[in-house]
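Let's inspect a concrete specimen:
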Amino acid sequence: MIIKNKKILGEVNVILDQISKVMQVERSTFYLLDKETNVLESIVTQGVHNIIITVPVGKGIVGTMFQQKRPIIENNTQKSTLFDNSYDEQLHFTTKSVLCVPIFNEKGKPIGALQSLNKKGGLFTEKDIKTLNSFATAISLIIKNSELYLASEHIKNNFSTLLDVFKVVSSELNLNKLIQVIMNKAAEITKSDRSSLFLVDEETGALWTVFAKGLENQIVRTKTGIVAEVAKNKKALIVNDPYNHPHFNASVDKQTKYRTKSILSVPVFNSKNDVLGVIQVINKLENDFNSADLDILTGFASQIRIAIENAKLFDQIQGMKNHLNILVQNLDNGIVTIDESLKINTVNDTFNKMFGLKKSQDLTNTHIDELSNSLKPLFLFCKETIATGEKNYQEELKIKISSKTSVTINVSVLPMQDAKGNVIGAIAVFNDISKEKRIQSNLSRYIPQHLVKQVMNHDNLSLLKGTYSKCSILFSDIRNFTTLTEEFGAIQIVELLNKYFEAMITSVHRYNGILDKYIGDAIMTVFGVPYANISDAKNAVNCALDMFAMLHNLNKNNSKSPTLNIGIGISTGNVVSGNIGSEKRFEYTVIGDSVNLAARLESATKVYNVNLLICEETYNEVKDDFHCREIDTLLVKGKNIPVKVFTVLSDKTKQLTKEQHDFNATYSEGLTHYKNEEFQKAIACFQAAIQLIPTDGPTKVFIERCSNNSKISI
């Protein structure tokens, strides 16, 4: 299974968008075979986020297609014996027709599948198979490229390890100590129990251990064995069963009372390609030694050579120092070095530009205690770092550089050490995050803080384009707001509204909602855009209940202000989300029937005298978490199919009273009679219900409606 890196997913997403457009289908999916579990896993599924679809090979339409290695067209899934509708139930989606084709690698073996669902305005044909097969070829190339990418990542990680060793080589002049560090690192990276370095005795030709982990107080000398064979042939050797190898010398094990189970040996050459010695690791802790371990140890062997040829290394370090000076001056970060007397040694140009310093304000040779009050906080931890040798870090430090200008930075203070490990100063690194903080602050006015970082760090900017996805929409509106504006002054109304909006948006952000817009005194909030979550509908209902609680506290704490009451409507369904508007001005919003339905449900709360109404799809997703009550079945304007609406009583952590249970049962019975147009029986039930809860609004509505034999549209 390939790793789902953002670059690869982005490329596949683009192809899936093209597939859906060319094929004229509702959505497309890319599956990849997991060889260990023998299942197909969805790598990218249009319209589905944070959910991986797994299909066993040989099961369902796509699993059967993969097993048979040939395309399948199913234009009536509901009658297909292969179709598994459990995925539709999980994703709240209806599959009507399916076309899927296998994806093959360069060896002709199936490695994945492409699937398109619900052909618009017709049936899938053989022509569609040819089209989808061409896209499957493109996906196959992406997979191949991703495998090359992962291989390069592995090489890069090994190279990074060697760079760490190189840093040690660059800072340590004691050869014996340096070899010890390198060999310990070699054992650590190859996950070996022991490591050793044998050098060739030019006089006798024997090999002896200048370092052997686990044999610190013993020196092993030998002219035989695997290590001698490697030195003689100048070739590395992997032996994972040494006791059955003809050149293995078991006498060393007897001498050291240690059992060797696996060996990896690599020759160390000098600049003339003569063998200086052999670097060896013993007993791989997990599995056997392989070619990857050989690559790593070969790199360590080259570092040993560098350490031995110390004079050449010193020249290289001097060259690197000059290169580093040039590099520091051109970094995007500000860099300042401070010596152990707390005087500034060097300052790069970026630091001066970052804090508005002119050339005449050169800080070189200035003691940090003599700096201006605005710059002193930048070097607050330098004394501590130099005294202790510990790193220090400051986040979001705001520095005022003029009466009108300030900069927000992150500061890292690192110790500088000499070759012997003594602290000789500190390096202060300054990262300007002013722009990032400004963007983050502006975004946080619209979306919750924890989503701000996801949006800022999201590589796939397709979320700014139009996308079709499922979400929940919440509309809230203040009751009788027009009357309030006529009774109270403008200043008082504005002050009250600001407090109201602050309380409501706190609830929205608490439950991961996104403020879409204010519409006068109304609020439109979206849950599930731009990032869908399986709990979007639940979050919307929790938000509504929290808004009522927040409003209660607001009214209680502002007794001198007019009392506010709100109605809320929540719907769940597919919407189009994206940047909508003109080139001069646009906004990120959602449009669709579900948006209109939420607004109409909010308006209907006034008819039934309830605070909250939710649609049937919302109810289906939250009914296991909340006590809900069916209110009515309405014919919504613009829709041909009536819509069931519900209200939410409380979450199910709270038990309903016996009175509430009896009321709900009686009301439900009356509603059933009403739907069957048995109005007299319905009135009897509703009148019995009103005796239990005399203030119930929907019951009063139905008593009046039954008397008039009428129904309602919204």
Remarks:
- The first helix runs from residue 6 to 23.
- The CA atoms of residues 176 and 210 lie 8 Å apart.
- The chain is about 40% helix and 25% strand.
- Residues 148-156, 311-320 have pLDDT under 50 and may be disordered.
